[in-house]
Amino acid sequence: MKYIPGGRNLEEKGIALDAIHHDGSVELDAHSLYGAMQSAATANYFTETLKKRPMTISRSSFAGSGKFAARSLGDNYSTYSYLAYSVTGVMAANIAGTPLAGADICGYNGDVTPELCARWYTVGSFYPFSRNHNHRDSIAQEPYEFEGRIPHYPVHYSYLDIMRWAMWNKMSLIRYYYSEMSHVQRYGGAFFKPLFFEFPDDPEAYGHQVRNVMLGSHLKLGIIPDFGHSGASDYQIFFPKGMWCEVFNKKGIDGCTYQSIAGNRNVES
Q: What domains are defined for the chain?
């Protein structure tokens, strides 16, 4: 049986999987390699001919493509499900050797709601590569399109305020991102990765990967992409044993908690 990742036939809009290339390789083993070689050729032209450092973004990639280009995960949909898919998608790109990867924030296909776009900005601000990208036939989804007050919210906030906050957070962490990405470039590994990469001996670290992400070796991200939309009234974020401190707070040491044993903490909607 043919391997069909994502439930989609690889021969749809593509070369037959049993096609033989000029060098004798089979298409099934070389699928998406052409796009990766385009990235390599582009990067080499800039570095060797123009003597400049390029910033190349590719949608097609292969294992190790991150040496030459960043990666966009490609056309997605403006739904909470695809927001969740983006988390494991960025992880997969990191594991396959492309650490600078990200999904289209707010979704590409379909019309996004203000709430979903704001939530996606919050999650997307933690992607290694963050961009808002939209289909021309969908409604506009730039942050300034969502200036209206959040309905039924006790404080006067707009969705624009949330998006602005998310972008400020990304900028405040940029030195940490650069340091950790430099470490990956020099020594290998992944940046946006599953929790068990840092806590392999903790069996609980292997569950709920969409909700538990490590950014480098020191920053843990807890994500609830369907907050308030799955029918549940509370959610659990896992914390391994150790000292955990809030990043965005003004509490000082009061924002730190020692987790004596590994376990979950409830987050109420």
A: 73-268 (3.20.20.80)
